[in-house]
Specification:
It is a single chain. This protein has 324 residues and is α/β, with parallel strands linked by helices. The chain has one domain: 3-Layer(aba) Sandwich (UDP-N-acetylmuramoyl-L-alanine:D-glutamate ligase). 32% of the residues lie in helices and 25% in strands. It contains 10 helices and 13 strands. Helix 4 links the parallel strand 9 and strand 10. Helix 1 crosses helix 7, helix 7 packs antiparallel against helix 8 and helix 8 packs across helix 9. The longest helix is centred in the C-terminal third of the chain and has 15 residues. It is globular, with a radius of gyration of 19 Å. Pfam families: PfkB. Belongs to the carbohydrate kinase pfkB family. Homodimer.
């Protein structure tokens, strides 16, 4: 593993417009909402804040913003978190997201990418002093692919959160060291919808794949060996940015030299805490809060691991499957 501790996040930044409602509307349905607020968000920016708040790894972000008032709170939030910014000023509006947050903490999100689509291959800054490049899919796919290829050529590890879900070229997957997906994204990439284990088996070209399983926890397959992490038990208030918090926290801990098992446990705790506060970046916990939760919570016992293994379609938590 590289001894360089820095992380570069290249990706999206949006201003989130959030309205609270009893439930998320069905197609054609109008729902009368309640409170309305704006929050800095966007998958890339959320993950950069999570990296920085995890501590221990210098965090930079490459992002594109418009010349408008929507950009200001995004910049302020990132700088307050300690993220060094490489900003591309675009002749397009800053990205926005429209979020309906239901009383059961579920949400529905529509994104207007705007300036996020202005990122280009030549915008990638120097990768000197960078150990990990963290990417998502809210910016042009050809640009994401080019960034991953440049990182691989420079000896920088690539973490890709394959969200929002879409088909990916084999060339991109070949340059990814750690792929993070949820169950829906795994099903799209693998063509297998009813078994996490079988879905993972269809993607042997990626050395390490992490699948987030919502309230159940997460599972990772690295070189044929599985690592299971049950979720921390919490009462969710707002699940917005929970997945982004997981990705950023995991990248930060791996950059610090954590084992995959320890990184998954830390990221799961950070994600759980993010579900207990409103907003995207505003909900992402500081490292001390995560460590407090970890210290107060025993590691998962065998029964919890067995339950999670069965859900994933594994015969036991210690399953190892040789890859082709």
């Amino acid at each position: 593993m590289s001894t360089r501790p820095g992380i570069l996040v290249a990706g999206s930044a949006n201003l989130d417009f959030v309205v609270h409602a009893h439930h998320v509307p069905s197609p054609g349905e109008t729902v009368l909402g309640r409170e309305f607020r704006t929050f800095p968000g966007g998958k890339g920016a959320n993950q950069a804040v999570a990296c920085a708040r995890a501590g221990g790894a210098a965090t930079r972000m490459l992002l594109a913003l418009g010349e408008d008032a929507f950009a200001e709170p995004i910049e302020a939030s990132l700088r307050e978190a300690g993220v060094e910014l490489h900003i591309v000023r675009a002749n397009q509006p800053t990205g926005t997201a429209f979020i309906c947050l239901a009383d059961d903490a579920e949400n529905a999100i529509t994104v207007a990418p705007g300036a996020n689509n202005a990122l280009r291959r030549h915008h990638l800054p120097s990768l000197d002093d960078t150990a990990y490049l963290l990417l998502q899919l809210e910016t042009p796919l050809d640009v994401v692919t080019a960034y991953a290829r440049a990182a691989r050529a420079s000896g920088v590890r690539v973490v890709l959160n394959a969200a929002p879900a879409q088909a990916l070229p084999a060339s991109l997957l070949a340059d990814v060291d750690v792929l993070v997906v949820n169950e829906g994204e795994l099903a799209l990439l693998s063509g297998v919808a009813d078994s996490v284990a079988q879905g993972l088996a269809q993607l042997p070209q990626v050395a390490c794949i992490v699948v987030t399983l919502g309230a159940r926890g997460c599972v990772a397959r690295q070189h044929g060996q599985f690592t299971l992490q049950p979720a921390f038990r919490i009462e969710p208030l707002d699940t917005t940015a929970a997945g982004d918090t997981f990705c950023g926290a995991l990248a930060a801990r791996l950059a610090q030299g954590d084992t995959l098992a320890d990184g998954l446990r830390y990221a799961s705790a950070a994600s759980a805490l993010a579900c207990q506060a409103l907003g995207a970046q505003s909900s992402i916990p500081a490292g001390q809060a995560v460590h407090d939760l970890l210290n107060a919570t025993p590691r998962a016992d065998d029964d919890a691991l067995q339950v999670l293994a069965r859900y994933c379609g594994l015969p036991s938590p210690l399953t190892t499957i040789p890859l082709p």
